[in-house]
Amino acid sequence: MLVLTRKLGESIRIGDNITVKIVDLDGRHVKLGIEAPKNIAVNREEIYERIQRENRAASISKDQGLENIASALRKSKE
User: Fold this and answer.
1) Domain shared by 24 and 4, yes or no
2) Are the CB atoms for 32 and 21 separated by under 8 Å?
3) What is the pTM of this model?
């Protein structure tokens, strides 16, 4: 992991098209401004994790639904 020290108003660049700027400092809190292309998702960690859980749950539900349909088709052929 790369660890950088930045002051208020300073930025870092990620690649050619992402900028992360220190916008505000308040005690133990840091406010970041992030400029990135619209096709790159930028989420807080807890939001990203929730999206991943929901995607996995939806995938499992879809698989179970397909299994139920296949089972019903097999039974109808018997």
Assistant:
1) yes
2) yes
3) 0.66
